[in-house]
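Researcher: Hi, I'm a grad student and pretty new to this. My advisor asked me to get structures for two proteins we've been looking at. I'm not sure of the right format, so I'll just paste the first sequence and hope you can take it from there.
Model: That works fine. Here's the first sequence with its structure tokens right after it:
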Amino acid sequence: MSDFAGMEDLLQDFLIEAGDLLSGVDNKLVDLERAPDDRSLLNEIFRGFHTIKGGAGFLNATELVTLCHLTENLFDNLRNGEIAVTPEIMDVILEATGTVRDMFASLEQGMQPGAADASLIVRLRQAIAGELIGGSGAASEPPAVAAPAGAASRGQAGGAPDWELLHGIVTGVARVIPPVREAPSMAAVVPAAAPARPAEEVIRNAVGRRATDKPGSQVSTGRREGEKQRDNSIRVDTTRLDQVLNLSGEIGLTKNRLNALRSDILSGRNDTETLHSLDLAVSQLDLLVSDLQNAVMKTRMQPIGRLFQKYPRIARDLARNLGKDVELVLAGEETEIDKTMIEDLADPIIHLIRNAVDHGVEDAAERIANGKPEKSIVRLEARQEGDHIVILVADDGRGMNAERLRAKAVEKGLITDEESNAMDERQSFNLVFLPGFSMAAQVSDVSGRGVGMDVVRTNIQKLNGNIEIQSQLGKGTTFVISLPLTLAILPVLLVRLGDQPFAVPLSMVREILPIEAKEVQEVGGRATMVVRGEVLPILPLAGLLGWPLERAPCYGVLMQTAEMSFILGIDTFAGREDAVIKSLDDFRPKGVAGVTTLSNGQIVLILDMKELLGSAGDQRWLSRMTMMAKQVATA
């Protein structure tokens, strides 16, 4: 039974707006730490907590109201100059925002949030009173001791009421005054030192490694289960909706024109003028439908900055826990991408930022010894290039050592010595994506399990994207993620095996080339071709599908995945198409990502090349002798 029966719509509106406000507050807190005297920032954060408190009041979320009220009072004192921003106060504020987000999680489940941790409330009250020193929780002077009954009135001039005590009772802001016979120090209530939070707790409120993540596992994309209902909503600019409405009206008028022309033709009017009008109407309808399709796609597009805004806080907390000075710089926040992709990008980006902060950048002493600035810069950037979105996660750290990566992979048994010797620098960098690979000497709450980078590549590939690594030893590392603008339409290359067409993702295709017998060589029992100095194996599509090889392939499609490059052997090809993907939820054969329909009505399977390569095993390879025999047989 929900605690908000009859208030579901109000609750969802509050969670959406308050979630955006809190994300904005997190970013402003990171800025405030760098500019503690910025009054405008203090005012904006104060207003954020005030607005959240007001919305929580409508929902009768008393514990959330109490926590926001205390934090709001702290910022009121900060902006009025009564107390100054210190690292200890920032730690308390950031812990409070984390608790507020935890309370949002309870609200998403339809439950009233529980009370905040008592030690947090005590430290907030200390901070409001200006008594929080050194993060120890000890006051600058012994706490006030309550006088015995009647003493309070004797302590007030003329027996006047204690207005400060009365105000504290009404607002719940005043610090707790212990009885005189107990007189415990605040250090007994709050731990002597505020321990650094585990990195898992730091990222838990956003996204990150979960207990179900295992090396090589097919992880689910998306966010916490409790967020799914909230994330189904989308904010659309009314001008875009107006454009959709106008195009719908134009299509309606064109439909009426086509109906009139149809009636004329059925009645026997087949003159040149009628046919010309029909041609114009069909052309206009084609143009309008294309414009409507683009307009509808734009309604799904959202600024990626809504995803980026949560990361400065996470990077700050992780760096602080690791004793590093790291600043996360954002760029291209206005770049728009499909909303469903924004949600599914949360896991990969948090892993890349965590990897950059933990492995990529050095600590301050090492950076100074190498002649670098003490502060490390991690850059998160998005931009549009043609029909793709490119996301960069770059650091100015120590870079990646290809030789050490190969040695570590051999040590862990992930590759053989022979495979290691044949790898170039790009392939060596891609070893970090192997399940179970980690350069960490020991497992920590941040890294070392060999899960994170495997999760990154898995989720990026689910979005029909790819990820590349650029690294220079001693200079830094850049991860480049390339994604399609939308998942609704997939550019594909139509290939044929006999009379049967298949579609392969165009993002994996590099070029198409003829397969001639004189150019086919045999290396290690496998048919290969040399393309611009690179020896590439030939994998017949028939072998990947488990079909008998009836003839030697005539053409090859040079394809590239994160693990390998190869030539896909086909009979012929039919060109490029923008496929509207239809999923096969109830029945999906292995190696099939979905289906699409061609202009002639023919249904075509869209192949999942990664799954085909993994399931075919050694049967996918073709020897040169077999290929030559098939060519002779079909000659």
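Researcher: Oh nice, that was easy. Here's the second one.
Model: And its structure:
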Amino acid sequence: MAAMNASLHQLPVKMLGDLISPRALERILQDAAAERGTTPDRMDVRTLESILKREVFKRLQLSVPATLAKRRVSEVLEELSQVTQERLPANDAALDELEEQARRFALYFDWPETQRLRGLLGVARQEQEGGQDTAALVQEGQDLIAQMDRRLQEGLVVQAQDLAELRAVFTRVQGLGGREVRRLDTLIGQIDEAQTQSTLLPGEVDRARTLTYNLRKQLESSVVEGLGSGARSAEGTQAQARVLELEREHVRQALDTAEREFAPLLLVRPDLREQLATLRGGGEQQPLTAQAVEGWCETLRAVLAEVLSEQRAELSALESDLSGHLAGAGVRVSLDAARHLLDGGTLASDDLRALSTARGALQASPDGAALSGEAGLNAGRELLEIERTARDLPGAAAELAPLLLMAQAALSNGQALDLDPLWAVLERHMGVAAQEREGFDARADGIVAQYDAVRGLAGETTQRLGRLADTLRAQRRLGPMSAAARARYAQTLADAETLLAEAQAEYRAAQEVTATFGDDALSGLLGVFELDAAEQPAEVWTLQGCMLLSGPYDEGTVPLTNLITVAEDMGVTELTMHSARHRWEAQQDAEGLWRVTRTQR
């Protein structure tokens, strides 16, 4: 046995050498074995399996996607089992630990993974009471926990970004006062507390967004009302433009929310996906409206009710057809998961497809000469895993579509399959995606580093860039990403790069002004402002940053805009200055608008 143990640790080195250097893998095995009070030569099978599932799997995810890492580690575990002909006994402690981990996700009862885990735990307890080995069920449960944890971590990054934006808006609208402002403050507090506890509150975030939209529109109206009649026309036009952009942003967010809410339905209905693409691609000629989004949501609710009814009928038929056969644990888990999902108003498309494959295998070979129902179910779930993974990889789903159709047809006829060619296609796309991720991370590191050089500026551009830099840091820390998370990462990078270019331009301009700005220069600027004072005893300027929105434009305008730029860079929001004959007052409102007046002393 000692000789066999001495060669055990060489198996992962041999099988995983193309993903990680043998030297690095041997060092991982040595360190992990030392932590467990042993050495690689003296490890038993249980210890090596633990190291493969934990330390080795974690290390592989640094260079390849989690799905690929999981598959390759699983191959090592299978080979290890064949070599040693040992199986781990059912482990009560492992099942108890799995149930404890599942409680973290009890709030997310509408997640398909949550319902499958719920069904899996119930079946695992039944198997355990019957003296059956539950190792495979426990492993699947751990995989589900990993999937849910990834989904949770991605959601927390998005929620943190939403929270930062809500706080930024709140500082601009809190001066309005009233019940809605107080309600927004309460919601922000609830979201903040949930974030610290690693809990998602999507409903509260949506309500807070709606409140900020209404308050920002109200603020724009108050800005226009507060302007004098001479500036009303110019600023009114600017305010209307900002209100229009607010409405567009609100409608886009509503469409994004609908896409997330009805994502399972969109996966099974290509016609609805086409409608979504049409809504998004309307452009200036057919701008997206709130009425159009609400109308589409009503359509989705009606279609969802129909599909739920169809799937409930399909589940009843599957239960009836499979009742005459001895159902293995996998079939029972899928039946239970599908039942829980449909009872909760969530589609169970994947579980129903896997069960349909199992039924097809049984009907094609009722005597078990070909695939059994359990083997058909497992093959069907592996196909689903390939399909789900392909959705997260650009171009993979289109290339694999015909291969998946042929494989599904073969399974329905009870034929055994070689899925290695499909995995090979998938792994090729995984490699491309891994390289893209490395590029994303490098860009994120560059943006964060360059932001640190300009963060001293106090303008709105730098503040927005700072919030995006925080988001990039969080996205950078994520492990393997879903397609949605990768798309958000790409969008954050693009937005941050645009803002970084603007911030760098503002920083250069500020340096140019402050290089020559001092007491003498300030006096000179005020001297310029005093030109023609007798002809214009009282004047008003309105500015947005360095842009003049209203007021006279003459040789004093450029020094005035430079002065306001310097004030913003310094974080100053109010200025009072005196010259021999004039009093200057400048004040920035909650929207970032400057009102500058000059009066006779």
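Researcher: Is there anything I should tell my advisor about the second?
Model: You could mention this: The CA atoms of residues 270 and 276 lie 10 Å apart.
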